[in-house]
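fyi for ur records
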Amino acid sequence: MDEKVKSFRDTLVYLVGWVLACILAILDLFFVRELLRDVMTWIQVAVEKAQTARGELHSQKLGWTIETIDRGMLFLGGITAVALVIWIEYYLRNAEKKGKLFPSLFKVLGIEAAIILVSWVLTLLI
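which gave:
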């Protein structure tokens, strides 16, 4: 009976922190997807300009390719988000057992916020 009883505050912080981290993980998925869609659109416009300069007709093939890549990114992003949520839960649970919940939670939330910020800034630049 060496196990320590968790306080209600620690349990509440763990639960709220995990939910917030999961929401940010999903937002990370959407912001990164939006950034990659902007990059692909930029590539498509550049290719179409090059085709116009050479006097070629625009091909719909590139548009279909980009749409397929986008759907694949959404599928793989969803799988990645689920895996990330599971990893975050594992990481926070271990940090709670070690008594380092707050630093670990702030580290996870900071990384996720940084991903959102970098994706948003890059989207504005493109």
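The chain has a mean pLDDT of 84. thats all i got for now
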